[in-house]
Amino acid sequence: MSDEKPVPTDLLTVGEVARRTGVAVSALHFYERQGLISSTRTPGGQRRYARHVIRRVSVIQVAKRMGIPLAEVGEVFADLPQDRMPGKTDWRRISERWRGRLEVRRRELERMERELVECIGCGCVSLRSCRVLNPDDELGTDGSGPRLLPEIQPDEQG
Ligand code: FES
After folding, report:
1. What is the pLDDT of residue 145?
2. Least CB-packed of 24, 72, 147, 150 within 10 Å?
């Protein structure tokens, strides 16, 4: 029996990538089908992943947590070299881009919150005048509450 410790190979099995990242094998296969990660094949047809794939999967996980769609992850990955780990400069560029995206989303959430506050105590839930239900409604800019009440006909008045 040899005293030598096994030398880690440069290539990882899908199970090793799953264990190191905490991501399910099925998700890794999905990311590969989406072109976000890539593998080579052994002569027996098994997938093998370069070690830097772990970093890519981590970036995907960050994106998922922030609600960044995979299509956008693909866009930033398209600018990364396939043969090395994304470096500090890469990550700075990606995180600045995503920070901008979060800022846009934060402003959108604040706008929706303001609109919802206007609904509190109203209760009209009107497709015509409620800005939450109908954000493009011009009458909604006049304030909360219904704007177009049906005309009461003389014979309907009590
Ligand atoms: S419920 Fe939204 S404006 Fe009345």
Report:
1. 56
2. 150
